[in-house]
Amino acid sequence: MVDLIRSMRPAQWTKNLIVFAGIIFSGNLFRSDLLFRSAITFAIFCLLSGAMYIMNDILDRNQDTHHPLKSKRPISLGIVSTTRAKLAIPVLTIVPLILAWILEPRVAIAAAAYAGMMSAYSLWLKRIPILDVLIISFGLFLRALSGAFAVSVEMSVWLFLCTILLALFLALCKRKHELLTLEDAAGRHRRVLEHYTDKLLDQMIAIATGSTIIAYAIYTISPETVGKFHTKNLVFTFPIVLFGLFRYLYLVYRERAGGAPEQLLLNDRQLIASIVLWAIAVGTIIYV
């Protein structure tokens, strides 16, 4: 059971924390009923994303042998049999979808769309350049949308754009890291890497970085945001976001990191400090 849970990649469940964006940026964080609904949504996507990770590991078990880290995953090592893993997928998909429907039908629809999209990604779409990283970014968007549906709030369009663009930035940096570390073996590990070049990824990362920065800046000063929180002070969180993005780029380009964003976000002290400082600043501005 422990190895099966490891195959669900708990370390990557940090991505599901985006479901709390809805309750946080609506000013309702301290409403226990809505916080409970957000927590249930988080659990739903932990199970659902776990099922998608297992599916992906089953399909990629041969290619993962060429990767220094992925080759150590339970399915790749044979510790969890493919038969056992395949039996877990429908359980980990159906149960959270039923729970989502009970919680809020719109959450169930978004969760089903996520499961369908990520299944298509694992089976086929991950082999199509550009579309592969866009699918990943829209996966994070559907998580954020589900979080908003769960607490029945409307999130700013600019905040949704920030979510999509940030996820795209992270996905592109991951492709860059794979090219840098795997070199000639990159195509054997992930077929889509044969279509990417260093120069192309550098240009796409630059566009994603700039777009994320601009989208967040506009969100902080938009009339909708100022009117909702009755303050213009969110703009003072902009330098923290700028530092966090630039720090991440430094780690990708200078330290050859970025293959596992969740590890960077949990292990790099400067990134942790910027995230904590940003959270404190946002919390203070919105709630104090």
UniProtKB/TrEMBL annotation:
<feature type="transmembrane region" description="Helical">
    <location>
        <begin position="271"/>
        <end position="287"/>
    </location>
</feature>
<keyword id="KW-0472">Membrane</keyword>
<feature type="transmembrane region" description="Helical">
    <location>
        <begin position="200"/>
        <end position="221"/>
    </location>
</feature>
<dbReference type="InterPro" id="IPR044878">
    <property type="entry name" value="UbiA_sf"/>
</dbReference>
<dbReference type="InterPro" id="IPR050475">
    <property type="entry name" value="Prenyltransferase_related"/>
</dbReference>
<feature type="transmembrane region" description="Helical">
    <location>
        <begin position="36"/>
        <end position="54"/>
    </location>
</feature>
<feature type="transmembrane region" description="Helical">
    <location>
        <begin position="233"/>
        <end position="250"/>
    </location>
</feature>
<dbReference type="InterPro" id="IPR000537">
    <property type="entry name" value="UbiA_prenyltransferase"/>
</dbReference>
<keyword id="KW-0812">Transmembrane</keyword>
<dbReference type="GO" id="GO:0016765">
    <property type="term" value="F:transferase activity, transferring alkyl or aryl (other than methyl) groups"/>
</dbReference>
<dbReference type="GO" id="GO:0016020">
    <property type="term" value="C:membrane"/>
</dbReference>
<keyword id="KW-1133">Transmembrane helix</keyword>
<protein>
    <recommendedName>
        <fullName>Phosphoribose diphosphate--decaprenyl-phosphate phosphoribosyltransferase</fullName>
    </recommendedName>
</protein>
<feature type="transmembrane region" description="Helical">
    <location>
        <begin position="75"/>
        <end position="101"/>
    </location>
</feature>
<dbReference type="Pfam" id="PF01040">
    <property type="entry name" value="UbiA"/>
</dbReference>
<feature type="transmembrane region" description="Helical">
    <location>
        <begin position="157"/>
        <end position="173"/>
    </location>
</feature>
<feature type="transmembrane region" description="Helical">
    <location>
        <begin position="131"/>
        <end position="151"/>
    </location>
</feature>
